[in-house]
Structure formats: structure tokens, C-alpha cells
């Protein structure tokens, strides 16, 4: 079968023939991939900044954001059946499993040896077929299939919002999200569903299509470097140290900031404000099973026009160019499996 792979010998991103997966064993499910989304992680992987292939291969099938349909189930599988729509979770337990992986909380893996499909040591979903353990799949109703490729990035946003709400000691009423990429926008939409007054700050100009999308969803948009108003909850999903500093400085007393993208904190962070204002900073990665479940519920509640407005569908043949080329205005590029 044809797949989009990163070749670690030649350091190239290419479409090539790879072996089709074996029939599903007990507890496993054979999937036909319908759509695969692209994000900044894929772009970084394609530049070989991080990621690695499975132990027995010198290549990695790319793709960790997928929507698929069950083709066939192995013995003992319950909960999903042929024809069902599913979104695979990304992380797979470390081996032997650490205490958190053993408990089903691979998003909290403490050994650092967990694998991630399409990223760290396990093939992804830029291929027509894949096999997964049934337990690693999030079922989605057919009525959401049109937008369900957004569930994986949404699950990351769900965990960040859940973390922020859990850590805030009072009743948060306002939120600011830094970054107007898919995770940032989805986090803003989830915060809005939770009843908060939300604004989004990002580098895109005030007349950029993403700013329009934010406003059509009923939220405020401010183009950086404008100073955002302070808020109770702040999510950093911009991936830049300056955004992390601005995010922390935007906290009201008791406020909680969740860092999703920035890898370094720049100089200038005033820790006395954290102490005297009982403010908190937390990091968050990946998502728990409950975040996929709440994501499915929220996908049904977020206006379909807003979700559709985030997505641009492109052909599988265009995948290498769409990953290596400039990101473009679309929030989420989605590759349809047609043509595989
Ligand atoms: Zn992603
Ligand atoms: Zn683990």
C-alpha cells in the first residue's frame, strides 16, 4: 500500500509502497483511514527535528491525526464493529508500563519511553490501512464524521482546559488563548462552551481569515503585539517564548496559565507575582481517554460552520508539498484518503 513516510536513511519525506498491516489479532481492529490532518508536529518531524522510526524500520509512516472506519475486528473486540467511525488516540504505553501507563493514563507517562503513532517509534496514519488495539480507539458517531478529524487536536485542548479549571481555586470567568492555530482555536471554543468570556491573541493581522473566524464564533480577537486584557485562565498555544511570558503576565490573581507550545521561558518572568497572587503555571501534553470523550461531546456542540471554517481538504498526492511548504491561511489541512 502507498504511504507517506519519513526515510531516516536519506532524510527525505516521500510517498512509497509499504507492507499492508497483517489481519487483526485478538483485541485488534483493522482500519481504513479516511482522512489525515497535518499540524506543526508533522512539519517539525519532516525537518527531522525530533521523532524516530519503529525499532525494526528505517522509516516512519507519518500522520497522528486521523479519522478512520473499522473494516474488520479481531476476536474478543467489543465496543466497535465494522463500519463504525473512530479516531485513534496517539500515545501507546511504555514497555514495561510505568505506573501511569498501566493505569491507562499514557498522557501522564513518567518513564518518557511511551511511543506515539506517527511521531515516536510507531507508524502513523498517512496510509490507507492501519491496525490498532480496539482500546486505543475513540468511537465517534457517524453524524460527526465530517469534522471528527479535528478530535485529536481537540483532545489536547480539552485536557488543557480541564487542567486549568481544576487548578483554579475560585470561579474563573474570563480566558485568553495565545495562538490561533488549531489547538488554540479549539481551546478557545471549549472555554466558550464552559461559559467563559474568551479572547484570542495571535500574530495574524486583524483582517486575517483566522481573526474573522474567531469573531464569527463570538469571541474577541487581538493581533499581537497588542497587550491582552487580564484573564482568569490563559492557554498558551502559540509555541513562542514571548507568548509564554505574555500569557503569564496576563493572569489575574488566582489565575492559571497552561503552557502547550512554548519550549523555553524567556527572561523577565516575575515570580513574585506568582507567589503574592496565588497564580499557577502548568504544562500539558497529549490527552486522557476522558478528553477524547468530552471532545466528542463538544464536537457536537461547537457550531459546524466554525469547525468547517477551520478545515481545508487537499488531496493525498499534495501531502509532501503541504507539509514541507509554508503553512498557509487554513487552520487545519486535511488530506482525504481518495487516491491512495
Ligand atoms: Zn497534531
Ligand atoms: Zn509510561
Keywords for this entry:
single chain, 340 residues, alpha/beta, Rossmann fold, 7-stranded mixed β-sheet, 6-stranded parallel β-sheet, binds zinc ion
How do the SSEs run, as a string of H and E? EEEHEEEEHEEEEHEHEHEEHEHEHHEHE
Count of domain modules? 2
The percent of residues in helical segments reads 25-40%
CATH domain class of the largest domain: Alpha Beta
Description:
With 340 residues, the chain is of the alpha/beta class. The chain has 2 domains: 171 residues, Medium-chain alcohol dehydrogenases, catalytic domain (Quinone Oxidoreductase, Chain A, domain 1, Alpha-Beta Complex); 131 residues, NAD(P)-binding Rossmann-like Domain (Rossmann fold). The protein is built from 10 helices and 19 strands. Strands 3, 5, 6, 10, 11, 18 and 19 form a 7-stranded mixed β-sheet that branches. Helix 3 crosses helix 4 and helix 3 crosses helix 8. The longest helix is centred in the middle third of the chain and has 17 residues. The mean pLDDT is 94. It binds zinc ion (2 copies). One zinc ion binds next to helix 2.
Topology:
Elements lengths: L1 E6 L4 E6 L10 E11 L1 H7 L12 E3 L3 E9 L11 E4 L2 E2 L6 H4 L12 E3 L3 E2 L6 E5 L3 E4 L10 H17 L6 E5 L3 H12 L3 E6 L6 H8 L3 E4 L7 E6 L4 H9 L1 E9 L11 H6 L3 E4 L5 H13 L2 H7 E5 L3 H6 L7 E5 L4
Parallel strand pairs: 8-9, 12-13, 12-15, 13-14, 15-16, 16-17, 18-19
Antiparallel strand pairs: 1-2, 1-4, 3-5, 3-10, 3-19, 5-6, 6-11, 7-8
Bound molecules: zinc ion (2 copies).
Amino acid at each position: 500500500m502507498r504511504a507517506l513516510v519519513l526515510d531516516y536513511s536519506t532524510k527525505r519525506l516521500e510517498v512509497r509502497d509499504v507492507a499492508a498491516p497483517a489481519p487483526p489479532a485478538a483485541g485488534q481492529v483493522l482500519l481504513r483511514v479516511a482522512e489525515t490532518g497535518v499540524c506543526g508536529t508533522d512539519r517539525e518531524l519532516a525537518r527531522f527535528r525530533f521523532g524516530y522510526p519503529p525499532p525494526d524500520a528505517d522509516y516512519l509512516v507519518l500522520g497522528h491525526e486521523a479519522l478512520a472506519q473499522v473494516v474488520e475486528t479481531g476476536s474478543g473486540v467489543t465496543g466497535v464493529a465494522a463500519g463504525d467511525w473512530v479516531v485513534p488516540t496517539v500515545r501507546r504505553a511504555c514497555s514495561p508500563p510505568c505506573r501511569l501507563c498501566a493505569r491507562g493514563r499514557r498522557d501522564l507517562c513518567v518513564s518518557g519511553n511511551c511511543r506515539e503513532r506517527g511521531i515516536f517509534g510507531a507508524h502513523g496514519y498517512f496510509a490507507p490501512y492501519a491496525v490498532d488495539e480496539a482500546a486505543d480507539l475513540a468511537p465517534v458517531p457517524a453524524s460527526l464524521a465530517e469534522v471528527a478529524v479535528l478530535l485529536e487536536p481537540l483532545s489536547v485542548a480539552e485536557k488543557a482546559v480541564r487542567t486549568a479549571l481544576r487548578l483554579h481555586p475560585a470561579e474563573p470567568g474570563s480566558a485568553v488563548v495565545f495562538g490561533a492555530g488549531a489547538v488554540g482555536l479549539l481551546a478557545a471554543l471549549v472555554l466558550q462552551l464552559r461559559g467563559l468570556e474568551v479572547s484570542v491573541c495571535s500574530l495574524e493581522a486583524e483582517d486575517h481569515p483566522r481573526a474573522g473566524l474567531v469573531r464569527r464564533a463570538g469571541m474577541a480577537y487581538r493581533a499581537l503585539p497588542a497587550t491582552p486584557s487580564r484573564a482568569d485562565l490563559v492557554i498558551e498555544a502559540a509555541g513562542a517564548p514571548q507568548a509564554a511570558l505574555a500569557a503569564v503576565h496576563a493572569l489575574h490573581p488566582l489565575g492559571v496559565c497552561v503552557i502547550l507550545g512554548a519550549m523555553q521561558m524567556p527572561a523577565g518572568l516575575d515570580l513574585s507575582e506568582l507567589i503574592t497572587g496565588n497564580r499557577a503555571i502548568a504544562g500539558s501534553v497529549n490527552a486522557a481517554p476522558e478528553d477524547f470523550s468530552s471532545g466528542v461531546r463538544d464536537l457536537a456542540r461547537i457550531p459546524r460552520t466554525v469547525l468547517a471554517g477551520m478545515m481545508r481538504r487537499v488531496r493525498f498526492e499534495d501531502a509532501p508539498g503541504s507539509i514541507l511548504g509554508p503553512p498557509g491561511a487554513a487552520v487545519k489541512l486535511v488530506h482525504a484518503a481518495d487516491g491512495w
